[in-house]
Amino acid sequence: MAEDSEAHVADAHDVIRVIGARENNLKNVDVEIPKRRLTVFTGVSGSGKSSLVFGTIASESQRLINETYPTFVQQFMAQLNRPDVDGLENVSPAIIVDQERMGSNARSTVGTATDAHAMLRMLFSRLGQPHVGSPQAFSFNIPSVSGAGAMTREKNGKSVQERRSFEITGGMCPRCEGLGEVSDIDLDELVDRDKSLADGAITIPGYSVDGWLVRIFTESGFIDPHKPVKEFTETEHHDFFYKEPVKVKVQNMSMTYEGIVPKITKSMLQKDREALQPHIRAFVDRAVKFQPCPDCGGTRLNDGARSSKIGDVNIADAAAMQITDLAAWLDTIDDPAVAPLLATLRRTIASFIDIGLGYLSLDRSAGTLSGGESQRTKMIRHLGSALTDVTYVFDEPTAGLHPHDIARMNRLLTQLRDKGNTVLVVEHKPEVIEIADHIVDLGPGAGRAGGEIQYVGDVAGLRASGTVTGRHLDDRARVKDTVRTPSGAIEIRGATRHNLRGVDVDIPLGILTVVTGVAGSGKSSLIHGSLPDRDGVVVVDQAPIKGNRRSSPATYTGLMDAVRSAFAKANGVKPGLFSANSEGACIACRGLGVIITTLGFTQTVETLCEVCDGSGFSDTVLEFRLNGKNIAEVLAMSAAEAADFFPTGTVHTTLARMIDVGLGYITLGQALTTLSGGERQRLKLAISMAKKGVVYVLDEPTTGLHLADVEAMLGLLDRLVDDGNSVIVIEHHQAVMAHADWIIDLGPGAGHDGGRIVFEGTPADLVAARSTLTGEHLAAYVGA
């Protein structure tokens, strides 16, 4: 039995070992991470935390798992490239829980994303009275269809005709096709009825009087182009607005004529709104009005699905309940025939409550969830899992959480660890750093100035380490001695969106206002539901920036046009020559900088283009210089370096704003797809900062910011206000609350326990009163 007293060789693999990691800005990083422990990765924004955790460890784990599937299955899976690392040892299967918002598909809800709605459908198909069918009869994604006809088949050498019929009973509302809302186009946003077509009656972007889009109407023969729209006959009105596609001759050319409504529906309204150009998107937002479907009342379900009830509750009622109420209703059902199903459904619903999402409802559209809510919703699948010895990877799990809720998140992280899992967390909040078993601090700076291990060890050692994180770990802001005086106010009256209870509030102008409250108290519903449609309001949220691998900060901010013009002027050539997407592209890689080799069902291989050395530009273009640099060298500069290179002009102004928002480390040619959620928001803020005298609405601008960077963000908010703007911040960070001129606190709880204003006043008054959860936590933070 000597074997028992010695460590088994299988127990020797107790650390994840990373050897020579070079992904993105990592500089040959070697590090050992203990398994079955909670490890927090810290460091300033852009220091390389995500590159190490997500881009190296988690990515390689997923790639290795994918390789275990048959090649037939692999061809349908995302092809992951091997990260740039010399070696990874003892990697366990990784489950990634990131902040990417859940799909904005209009058919996706909280219930469908977590399978809770599928179990609810099963429950109603078994117990609902009257019985209307299988679970698909309660699905708003399945329409009811039926059909019949004759079919011919061979039987004993003869053709035999048989009559067949089929019927599918679905739950989809036929009016709105399961979307819960119908769109109505405001015709007055399409045309000026007092004008004729020849005088420019059509007000749709791109429809100029002398353009082909309008000439099809004026020369079709269906409409008098010189008659004001308001004087159209009934036939002309129908032909102009709604006529079905027909062929017409316009200047001896055969063209398709159709009414203006179906025409713009196809060209603009049926496209992804986020992919539209800004001026087209603004037009669509004005022209299309959405309202709850009158047939189903917004429930998405047809009459049959809504007629079947358990007691006096139908499935639409159950899905609309706040999840805490749904849990109580499920406890009233006691039927041995569905006991296993009920047990699973109750566990899932309990997970919502445990994770702090009990204020949601299952019919809530997944696209309306914040990044933090999306991340916590994804966690629900894993809380009750029997899996162990897996690696859970979290990206700022406290994003969107009030200080009151962070303790609950910390309990969940430690529960996952205590089940024998490895938990890796990228985080900036001191409250999470404090519970870590192990810390890996990266830095010392961001971008090229980062990518190195600064400290590895416990929290006490981090405090004494002298690193940027260690020095700022105990930073505490203090409440301002004096606050600004408002110059006016935006009045909100009777706000009832989501859980708001007829809220009346005056939001002061000309100062820094912070709107706070526990998660689910109604902050976003109040601000985003009341302010964005007003003139002079600039909303900077964390919605992902649309872009691909060819998009970069230079193209997104509009810098690239000015840079190309500067090169063209200095060299006497066309600006288009300095675009890697057109004339200046390398002929071998077509401007990508890499050669992509598709190997069928195995992973795609990317190799650096040997012709252009990864620049994406042709040799001819790289010979042209501006102040001694070629276009590739300029795009490789960080924003801070480029600001010195372009000391004046619009380029310098935009770069200075990028530096102000803490993005001086980002290179101009970096792919947009590599930016974090916080970096995207700050990039959008940098673009918007050019406007003066407006109302800025910022949604948690400290997301993704290191403790050392929060002070710089506060300075930026002050400069925006001092320049004559009004700044409204939805935020949980106590440093931002303490720095505010005015605080609006919602609560007291979440869901139907919130939706009310529980405090309005200065931070000092909130600390002194300690009458709300926010007041208690802010008082503790400032040491009052």
Automatic annotation (TrEMBL):
<keyword id="KW-0267">Excision nuclease</keyword>
<keyword id="KW-0677">Repeat</keyword>
<feature type="domain" description="ABC transporter">
    <location>
        <begin position="10"/>
        <end position="469"/>
    </location>
</feature>
<dbReference type="InterPro" id="IPR017871">
    <property type="entry name" value="ABC_transporter-like_CS"/>
</dbReference>
<keyword id="KW-0963">Cytoplasm</keyword>
<dbReference type="Pfam" id="PF00005">
    <property type="entry name" value="ABC_tran"/>
</dbReference>
<keyword id="KW-0067">ATP-binding</keyword>
<dbReference type="InterPro" id="IPR003439">
    <property type="entry name" value="ABC_transporter-like_ATP-bd"/>
</dbReference>
<keyword id="KW-0227">DNA damage</keyword>
<keyword id="KW-0228">DNA excision</keyword>
<keyword id="KW-0547">Nucleotide-binding</keyword>
<comment type="similarity">
    <text>Belongs to the ABC transporter superfamily. UvrA family.</text>
</comment>
<protein>
    <recommendedName>
        <fullName>UvrABC system protein A</fullName>
    </recommendedName>
</protein>
<dbReference type="InterPro" id="IPR027417">
    <property type="entry name" value="P-loop_NTPase"/>
</dbReference>
<feature type="domain" description="ABC transporter">
    <location>
        <begin position="477"/>
        <end position="773"/>
    </location>
</feature>
<keyword id="KW-0238">DNA-binding</keyword>
<keyword id="KW-0234">DNA repair</keyword>
